[in-house]
Design goal:
Elements lengths: L1 H6 L1 H10 L10 H16 L2 H9 L12 H5 L14 E3 L5 E4 L2 H20 L4 H6 L2 E4 L1 H7 L12 E4 L14 H6 L8 H12 L25 H9 L8 H5 L3 H4 L14 E2 L2 E2 L4 E3 L9 E3 L2 H10 L1 H16 L8 H13 L4 H10 L1 H4 L6
Antiparallel strand pairs: 1-2, 3-4, 5-6, 7-8
Helix pairs in contact: 2-6, 2-15, 15-16, 15-17, 16-17
Bound molecules: heme C.
Length: 368
């Protein structure tokens, strides 16, 4: 089995990565911490955790997709969302900027190249978030504002990203992610923050209840940046507003992406106001502490070392490999996967090896 994996590394790497998109649904706000606490207990687990799972299975059910858009994209993390058209219009509604098909294809190639290279070199999922390099061709480097020296017009070469360089480090600064999680006309701190919260940290944020007016307020002179516009959900003037309960879990993460517009182009100002890419992951870790980062590189560095991220990816990959949502009743299988993957330092290869060695994968139990 493992030999077979080695022969199909490229395919396995992209399949495995695509599973990151499956999120936990149907959880209430109070359940959110419970889910992640159970999950983190399981990660450090052992026999006690197995018993706990059997006696008190988590009260949520996992479903394959969080939305019809997810389903249409096959549950892929960001890449298939690249097919969504992002355009920028002037005040008369004329399109003034649109990505070309080649640019989209280049962005997909960049991300696939990084994943496959990381997988083949024994890297972890965490390494994707802190990568000090990427894979570019001339056109993508130009779009990113990076020197095209030595780059080919067609094939992709490894390019180092020095600290403080023109692009942030890691997969979160790839055009594929930045475009996939944007509104048609502007960036989206909510969607980008939701991505990190739900798909990378395995913590759900339920959709807004019906009857809430969730319309994004139009920009005004008081809100020259997209960040300022979205901060209204997080810091509303009305203290009884229901918005912050959920939006503080998403938007302050998403602000970390604000050095990139909806297309993934780097920017330092918006309407003459400096971009502030500082960000906070509220209740990030096992103890629920807030993690503050100066920029997107800083967020990537935190995610790269987070045990939650490792455990979350192992969970989703297993889900994908087994093709069922048996998390509730199968805590022991997942616990053993995490133990085996941990022994291999959570390299992408060791996670997959652990999944295919688990009895859940190698044996079939007759229906009762
Ligand atoms: C129960 C949780 C919850 C509450 C309460 C809530 N929201 Fe949201 N909101 C969400 C989620 C989840 C999304 C979807 C994020 C995504 O698309 O990835 C969202 C999306 C949005 C969006 C779209 C943002 C974008 O960039 O696509 C806006 C605008 C918004 N909410 C405004 C509000 C406002 C205003 C309130 C208060 C009146 C509010 N929401 C209350 C959970 C909530």
């Amino acid at each position: 089995m493992i030999t077979a994996l080695a022969n199909n590394e490229l395919e396995i790497a992209s399949l495995a990565y695509s599973t990151l998109s499956i999120a936990v649904e149907n959880a209430g706000m109070d359940d959110m911490r419970v889910i992640s606490d159970n999950f983190q207990d399981g990660y450090e687990g052992g026999a006690k955790v197995c018993a706990d799972y059997q006696n008190h299975p988590p009260s949520v059910t996992e479903t394959g997709y969080t939305s019809s858009q997810d389903q249409a994209s096959g549950g892929n993390l960001p890449l298939d969302q690249m097919t969504a058209t992002v355009t920028q219009s002037d005040t008369s509604g004329n399109t003034v900027y649109m990505l070309t098909d080649t640019q989209r294809a280049d962005m997909m190639s960049e991300t696939t190249n990084l994943i496959v290279d990381t997988f083949n070199n024994g890297g972890t999922v965490g390494d994707l978030f802190s990568a000090d390099h990427s894979f570019l061709n001339q056109e993508l480097a130009q779009f990113y504002g990076i020197s095209t020296n030595g780059l080919s017009a067609s094939s992709f070469s490894k390019v180092s990203y020095p600290m403080g360089g023109p692009r942030d480090r890691g997969i979160l600064a790839h055009g594929s992610i930045l475009n996939g999680y944007s509104r048609p006309d502007i960036s989206s701190p909510t969607q980008r923050g939701h991505l990190v919260r739900s798909r990378i940290l395995c913590q759900d944020v339920p959709p807004p209840p019906p009857n809430l007016n969730t319309k994004l307020s139009d920009p005004t002179t008081a809100t020259p940046t997209t960040r300022a516009q979205y901060e209204q959900h997080v810091h509303p003037s009305d203290p009884t507003s229901p918005c912050p309960a959920c939006h503080t879990l998403m938007d302050p993460i998403g602000f970390g992406f604000e050095a990139y517009d909806g297309f993934g182009r780097h920017r330092t100002t918006q309407n003459g106001t400096a971009i502030d890419p500082s960000n906070v992951i509220k209740q990030a870790g096992t103890t629920g502490m807030d993690v503050s980062n100066a920029d997107l590189t800083g967020m990537g560095q935190y995610l790269a070392t987070s045990d939650d991220v490792k455990a979350c990816s192992a969970r989703y990959w297993a889900y994908f490999a087994y093709g069922d949502a048996s998390w509730d009743e199968d805590g022991c299988t997942y616990d053993s996967i995490r133990t085996a993957a941990k022994a291999g330092n959570y390299s992408m290869k060791s996670v997959l090896t652990a999944i295919v060695h688990a009895p859940h994968f190698t044996t079939r139990v007759q229906d009762k």
